[in-house]
Each structure stands twice: as structure tokens, then as C-alpha cells.
Amino acid sequence: MDKQKWEPKIVAFVCNWCTYTGADLAGTSRMKYPANTKMIRVMCSGSIDPVFILKAFERGADGVLISGCHPNDCHYNAGNFHARRRWDFFHELLDFIGIEKGRLQFSWISASEGKKFADVISKVTKDIKALGPFTDYQKMNSEFTAFFPEETAEDHEVLNKVEEIV
Amino acid sequence: MTVRVLPGSVKIFSGVEYSTDYKYMCSDPGQNLIKEAIHKYRLDAIVVGSCSPHMHERTFRNAAVSAGINPFMVEIANLREHCSWVHDDIESSTHKAIELVRMAIEKVKRDKPLTKINVPVTKRVLVIGGGIAGIQAALDVANAGYEVVLVEKEPSIGGHMSQLSETFPTLDCSQCILTPRMVEVHQHPKIKLLSYSEVVKVEGFIGNFKVTIKKKARHINEDLCSGCGLCITKCPIKKKAYNSFEEDLAFRSAIYIPFPQAIPNIPVIDETVCTYYKTGKCGMCVKVCDRQAIDFDQKDTMLVADIGAIIVATGFKLYSIDKKSADSKYKGYGEYGYGKYRDVIDGLQFERIASASGPTSGEIKRPSDGKEPKKIAFIQCVGSRDDSKGISYCSKICCMYTAKQAMLYKHKVHDGEAYIFYMDIRAGGKMYEEFVRRAIEEDDVKYIRGRVSRIYEKNGKYIVKGEDTIAGMPVEIEADMIVLATAMIPQDNAADLARTIGVPYDKYGFYNESHPKLKPVESTTAGIFLAGACQSPKDIPESVAMASAAACKTIILLSSDTLEREPVVAKVNEDLCAGCFYCKKVCPFGAVEVKDVKDINGIVYKEVAYINQGVCQGCGTCTATCLSKSIELAGFNNEEIFAEIAAL
Hints:
- The structure holds two protein chains of two kinds.
- A four-stranded parallel β-sheet of chain A has the order 2-1-3-4, with helices on both faces.
- In chain A, 48% of the residues lie in helices and 14% in strands.
- The radius of gyration of chain A is 19 Å and the shape is globular.
- Chain A has helices at 19-28, 50-58, 79-96, 114-131, 136-147, 153-165, and strands at 10-15, 37-42, 63-68, 104-108.
- In chain A, helix 1 (19-28) crosses helix 4.
- Chain B is globular.
């Protein structure tokens, strides 16, 4: 792959109340950061399932960022504590499942920290760029789909008919 | 970002029937565009690529409703705050915009119509804290016709305002304006006053809280006591306990009322000093009380109240310069003697000295030898705005009260000299700047811009070493008394109480408002409101304004019989649920209940989790914790999030 042209694909799972709002503030304040990160809004960082992260890697993400409210500042009082505990543990497992630890990053960004949001996104983008593209999971994914071919349009029609009949 | 290519680009995604662009989609014509498109193309879901959903989500949802589709079939792709405003590169940002829209399309395809949830409302308000903010909030709510339970941890309501001598910028007597309010609270038929009580447990949710309140034992039967005060005068224990209302500048008896105008005017027995609790003898108060109101065996009692909304007005305390323990988040002032000099006092102590009802009857006397100080130094920003002491914020009121105190001193000691060391004068407020000018120009208070590096005692005087940064030279003043304007900090138990009632707090312990500009009195927990200095340092007018605002918000809440809530709540798939109840452990709101599943004969064959939709706030922590993935958060379920991930 052409290293010069390659741009990392980063997924950020952010909570609605702090980081998403912080990102809004970064926008309102016209702070600039690289366009590689796409955000998925969830209500609380506590609701981010580790499966989401694996799914993101499987779908071609080169890096994942998780961000929520600062400890004690959670809109739901304790969601980010559960998240923190979960991520501490999950982070250790990443190596084991063949993903470099650096590809998954965490941060606390409050609704008033637009600047921090822009800085974090820039830093994460830089870090992931340095790590290079992440292809292992996609390779595995293609092997998997080769083994279980995806449904074709015909399959769909058949299925739909079956549904109608049922 | 090039907007004009977007409609064509996103049109190709499966499921998209129609796409267009318009400059102001949130305007009336823009909304009409959406409504017309819904009718014309018979759309069942819409995606708006616009500003943040925090801005106009409601606008577009309402537009969808008026065109006949469910409001939750609307998704917003944030193309302004998260894309066009933050990226310079046109190509990559346009690309990102298309992807963001695609994610929203994939999500909206899986969205399900949701309906708002109705919950009943208990028409009773709990106000925690009986300072000026709590008093104001309680009166406002009660005058609107709703029942109020006012809980105060001290034996009397009144708070810090009752300790003040005069108030800025009018110099009117603090107690004279406060005590009528206190009496009004006492006499109000709608207010139930629980003094010497604390909130120990809050369960439930907006409109339906269940609050447990501990009524501490006064050792006085409140129904019998007439408040004559004979027990207090006859109590032989006179000098064993400091009077905390007088900021430890005087003593009080073992049985006491905090101050003469206390509401309720019922004494409290301090078990730690009372002879009866040590030796089982004395009982002087029992002998003199002709109403038999003294009850040594009284125990703490627990009360449970159904509450619809809570106003938290727990106020502040003053930072002290004492040496702190190593694990404290604050540091003391060794350079000012860690509080070992008796004539180095704080602002509240000066208020008591200046107060006509205080220990010196309003004469300015220094605590060590009772002499009138001829030279007095005030030091502002002690703790405040000082990162090295652990407080980086401005306490906001000290500039004003220091000016006031210097003025009061000059009014009482005409030949005295008053010096004020300051960093900046922050006198923002109606008539505030004029007040400071009056202190300088009319009362000849000497303002020195600079910090004090050291205070030490020499021949009964206190040497204040500082710097005059305007003159650019060191200064040294031989003062008789020093008043420190110490920082306002949260109450000691602020964090514990926050956890009890379920409101978030910042790193200092001040409670967090829901939105710093648009929701300044709401906490982030629905149905809990904030008033006064528990949220951040405030002066009296601000506390009162905030209390009235919180009361108003509460009244709005109670004015309807049922409450509409966003339907973003978790729901359990009972077939899949294995009954491990991990969700119950992690739920911050106690929304998860145990439900029995019965077979056709009515025999329970398994227990599953059940989520009370009124209690659930929709954080989704349970969904991530659930091992069998049997909990879904409406509006953010796994299928929707997977679709978003897949659309990247």
C-alpha cells in the first residue's frame, strides 16, 4: 500500500453528554483537526460494548478512540466508572487477540474541553498513522466470508418469499 | 466541504428515496421542504445533515411529527460542528460528510418508532439546606401551593447569611432582612421544617423519589418545648464547647440554641459535653423545665417521604489556613502561621466581631486581648486563585465583603487604619464598583495591589510583609489584627451527599449544572435542581435568584399530573435473559428489578431482569454488561450501532 497516500480510518465512540458536546464546542470554536475520525454517538461511555470495538476493527478501522465524561462528571453518575474498569481489562486482552494496544485509545473529555477534543483527535490520528494500516482482521474477515459466502440477491428473494408465506 | 455534491452522492445509498439541500433547513421554509418531501415520496424516515443534534434535533423531530411520521425516525448527521467547521481540506471533509450521512442512513433504517413514556408526579418538593437559597426556594414553591419538606442539618435554619453583620453594597443588616423570611418559613402551612436532620437516602426518579431523612436526636420533645430558654441559662456547663455560630469566638452551654432568632426556637443538647451523658447526674435542665420537655433518651428517628422534585441548596464553607493532612486536596498557609495567631482571623469571624449580636456586641476588639485594633490588614484571595493551595477558582464574593468589612471597621474605629492587599478587584454587579470606590474615597481604605508573603508576631503586633506591585517595592505593615478573605469551598460532606442524591460534582466538590449556559439550575439528574453556593461561589442576590429559578423549574415540573419522558430506555428480552442480574449491579439508578416468569400453571420457572421504564435514564451501561445480550437500549440498540460501524 502506498504509505504516502494512505490515511487511517478511525472510529470514535463518544458519550452524548460530554465528549460529543465537547466536539460540538471544538466545532463552534473553529478548532482544526484531521478528518480521519468518524464519531459514533452513544448515550454513555458505559454502554460501549467491547464487541463494538472488535466490529470496528473487523470493518476496516485502523484505530478506535473511546471517550466519555471525566470521573464523577458522568451524566448517569457511574457509567464512566464501569467503562473505565471494562477498558482497563479489555486493553490488556487486545495484544492477546492480535491487535496492537496503541490502536485503542481512551480519554476523558468534558463538554467544556473543545480544545482537548481537537488535541486528542490530532494525537490519536498521529499515533495511528505511525502504527500503519491494520489489515489482519480484514484478512481474517475475507477468509471468513470466503468460507461463508454472503447472501446473494436471489437468497434474499427466496427469504422474503418465505417470510411472506409465513 | 462542498455541500452541492452531497445530495447526489448520498442518493445512491440503498433505501434513499429522495435527497436535497437547502441553506437553512431549520427555518420554516426548510422544514416545509422536509414535510413536503415526506408527503410526496411517502418517506418513513429522514436524515438531516446539519448542525449538532444538540441544537435542532427537536426542531426536525417536530417537523417529522407534523408530517405524520414518528419523531424517533429522524437521525441527524452532524456536518457542521463535526465536519465543515473543523476541517480545512475540502476533499477529505466532503468525503467525511458523505460517510457521516451514510452512517445516519444506516442507523435510521434500523430505527424503530418510539413513544414517549408517561410517569406520575408526586406533588411534594424536598429542599435540602436551610440557608438563604433553601429558604427562598422553599417559600417560592410553597407559595405556588405545593408542599415542601425543608431539611436543615443544623439546629436552626438561616445558614451563613444569619452570621453576617451587614450586607454589601447597601450595608443593611443581614439578620434584619433574613429573619422575616425564616419566620415566614416557620409559619407557612405548606412547609414542613425538619431542622437538625439529614438526608440519608434517595431512591426513585423524577416525580417519584423516596427520600429517607434522619432526624437527629435533639433530646428535647419539640411538641412540649416553649422555647423559654430557662434550661440554657441554668445549664452549668458554660465553657466546654465553642459556639460554632460565633465562629468559635465564644462559648456556649451544653444545652443551647445557636442564636437568639433561631428557627425553630428549640434547644439542642450536645451529648459530647453534657454532664448527664458522662456521669448520669446533673439534670439541671430537667429540674427547671416546667413542661417536662427534656428527653435524655431520645433517639435518632428515620422519616420516609414521597417527593416529586428535589432542590439542593447545601451551600459552602470557608477554607481554613490550618496545616492540612498529606491526603487533603488543599494546602494550608504556613507563611501565615497555619492559624496559630489568634488575631489572624477569617472573614466570617470578622462578621461576628462586627455584628451587634456577636461576642463583642459589635465593638471591634481583637480576639487575643480584647483591645481595639488601630491598624488592620485585610488580605484577599487567601486560597482562592492559588493553584499551589489547591483552589484555582475565584471565590467571587471576597472583593466585595473585604471592602465592606474595611468600611465597617472604619465606621467603628474612626482613627484606625485599614489596609487591603488584593490581586485584582472584581466588583462586577449592580452598585458594586461604586461601593469599592466609596471604601477607597470616602472611608480612606488603603488598597495595596500585591500578595502578602509572610505574617509573623513581634511585640504583640503582627508584621505583614508584602509587595506593592504598582509602586514596585516591598511593604511592611505592623498590624494589630489581620482578616483573611479565605476561599469558599464546598461543604465537607458535599461529595458524599452528591453520591447519596445522585448528582455529579466537579473536582472541587461543587455540584454540576446540566448546561453551563442554558440549564444553569438543573442538575444532570432529572428532577433534581441546584440553588446557591453548592454549585459555585455566589453572593446573596445570585443565590436568591438561582433559588427562585430552581423553584420555578420545580413548579413547572409539578404543574402537570404526569410527566413525559424520552423513550430512550433499556428493555430486556425475557426469553434470552438468564437472570444473572449483572445489570442490577451496574445500574446507577436502581432501575433493574427482579421479575418472576410463570408458566401456564402460574408456577415461577425463572427469574429475569425487568427494567422500570420510569427509573431508567437510558445510559445503556446494562446493555454492555449483559452477558446474553438480552438488553437493548431503545434508539441506540446494538443493531443500530453495528449498522453505523458497518457504514464507515
